[in-house]
Amino acid sequence: MSLMRDPRDRSDLRRPLRAAPAAHRPAGLFALVLAMGLLAGCEGVSMGAGDETTDHAQQEDRWREASDMAVASLPGLSGTLAKPATVAQVQRMLGELGYSPGPVDGVMGKRTTIALKHFQVDAELAVDGVITTAVLAQLRAAHSRGWVREPEGIDAQLAKMSPPPQQLVEPLYEVGDRFVYSDGRVETVVRLGGDTVFWRTGDGFEYSSPRHFALPPLTAVSASERHETSTTLDAASDWPPRFGKPVGFFVRTVIKDVSGTVVERYVVQRWTCKVDKPKRLSIAAGMFDTVIFACDRSAPEAGTWKRRIWYYSPVVRHFIRRDDIAHPTGVRTTVELLAVRPGTRDWPPAARTGLEWAIQDSLSGTKAGETAEWRSSGVGESFKIVAGKDRRVSGQRCRDFILSREQPGVPRSYPAIACRGAYSRHWLVPGLDPGAINPVILFETLG
Q1: Model's pTM, two decimal places?
Q2: Where are the chain's structural domains?
């Protein structure tokens, strides 16, 4: 009998990231450099009296047009540029521009694709995550100007709300909170007991865990087994770990039959966890300042993780991404947070309807980055709603948005993505609303 997997795992839905098809390396770059040089020489030309405010925008337009024309004329520079050397160059430039594409490894993976899509949005290009001649020219032009991305819209709101790294706040959960992940998993907080959180998954599976996500589940029940886990910290160790001070502990899991009476076996593993430097991370739902928690465990079963990395957002009060490195292959798989909705189960129907109406109105009627507010004296709650830019996914119009609730001390945010069809009046959150696009399809399309 094999050890039942962590209920938070969905290994059956994961697969290694695939590189895009290779294409020819760019050639004849002298023509591109010459065109850009000629354009640069025109920057000092006066636009005449009264045109100073539009000079910069018109220069940008001419830069883009000249860049596109120059690149289009080069031989061997059409279609997707996906040779490892080209991808690595793109990754390096995206990273220096502030788009967090991940390691410079020449592989067109999900992180690089998402970073490239963010650049395409900012550069007002077609958003498809593909390295084309136009994209490469725009990227080089932005890089040569020394431009660095500044947060805007939702990202700016999150940046303002993020506490300094040294003011790390603990994870926070409330009954009714719902979390949607890129592997299709949906989890709901059904009960709280001290520092224990009780969860129910979308398929009815139940488990309990410590409040801190990096610790192993306490109990988990499947159709045939019940797992009970205890954790013993090393002497003089404190949880959670602090930067530069790893924490070690032993995890003992007892496996019983479904009746909970017959002990079938137990497993003991050694875990070592640490905190790495903070990092600004771009995912499908937006850009977040994160604190990195990484854990290694001894003697993992083949196909399970030997190293797990969580990217924790202090404003969301939960991790926004998790990377698993498998034993013994070293294959990395990634799960991202696509949506969080606050628990409103105990609210009066009028308050729940009012918040939903406010979200729908904001998504339909506000520009990217604009803030709408909703208040209810009946439940004593106040939210700010900020919608992001439009994206097209499988013929639907999608927008990321964030609910921000002010609380004493540190505020809490609920990011999400919602989509609606061409003939629909309602925005639907994947994984939560009936008829919404599948979360896995949404993530694969965006990523």
Answers
A1: 0.65
A2: 29-149, 349-446
